[in-house]
Amino acid sequence: MSPSQETVLEVQALTKRFGGSTVLRDVSFSTAAGEIIGLIGPNGAGKTTLLNVLSGVVKPTSGKVFFAGRDLSRLKTNAIARLGIARTLQTPRSFPNMTVFENVLIGALFGGPRGAERRPPSSTAITRHAESMLDLVRLRHRSASPMASLNLQERKMVEIARALAMSPALLLIDEAMSGLNPTEIEDSMQLIRRVHEQTGVAIIWVEHVVKAIMEVVERIIVLNFGEVIATGPPSQIARNDAVIEAYLGTRA
């Protein structure tokens, strides 16, 4: 993170226990405005739990999460979303009987564009904003299609568009490549690059497709057994002995 970049997210000594199991232990890191970070690690490392804490789905056992200087640790999910953190899920959740456009419109209605004085946008502005997010993920041609008619990749793209329609400052992506074939993975990599470049949103991206992470993100955080074992640029992480032993298995 460049010293000149504003910090939007600060995680301080975050610990999460479920009964006698410690899923996250003293996790600390920060995210700069507009930064794209990859979050990797073995199954059970605590990656999704970390996203759940950041988005308010679960509360930390100890530690603090600050977003734009505000403590999120005890806020509800909807309050955190309205502050500017949007989330996608590994298994897309949509309203199957609604159209693609209507699904994205929900995000725009909940968040959507605001003026300098944070005035509620007009219905026209909300509609155009939702349409622009569908343009960004290149699904405008499916606007009128029912969600149930889309394939897995398209449903994941709609989920990203709906999250972006909330106009977040931070986007949490959970395994956008899961279940996709190599061509779809390449398309999804290009989509995340495009989202980052065109919106300037900060991104924390959990992913098991290491090639995608290595080629797209600026910095990687590696979790193992709930602890951060390494953080740094992809080239450094790919040659980190602890990461190779715990997760990669070979030098990338």
Estimated share of beta-strand residues: 15-25%
Could you name the CATH topology of the largest domain? Rossmann fold
Oligomeric status: single chain
Q: Can you count the helices?
A: 9
Strands side by side in the biggest sheet = 6-7-8-3-9-10
The whole-angstrom Rg is 18 Å
Provide the number of structural domains. Answer: 2
* Low-pLDDT segments: none
What top-tier CATH class of the largest domain fits best?
A: Alpha Beta
CATH architect. name of the largest domain: 3-Layer(aba) Sandwich
Give the overall shape, derived from the CA principal axes: globular
Head-to-tail CA distance between termini: 23 Å
Q: Kindly state the mean pLDDT as a whole number?
A: 90
- Kindly report the name of the CATH homologous superfamily of the largest domain: P-loop containing nucleotide triphosphate hydrolases
Helix-strand string:
EEEHEEHEHHHEHEHEEHH
Number of strands: 10
Structure classification: alpha/beta
The major beta sheet can be summarized as: 6 strands, mixed
Helical proportion, percent range = 25-40%
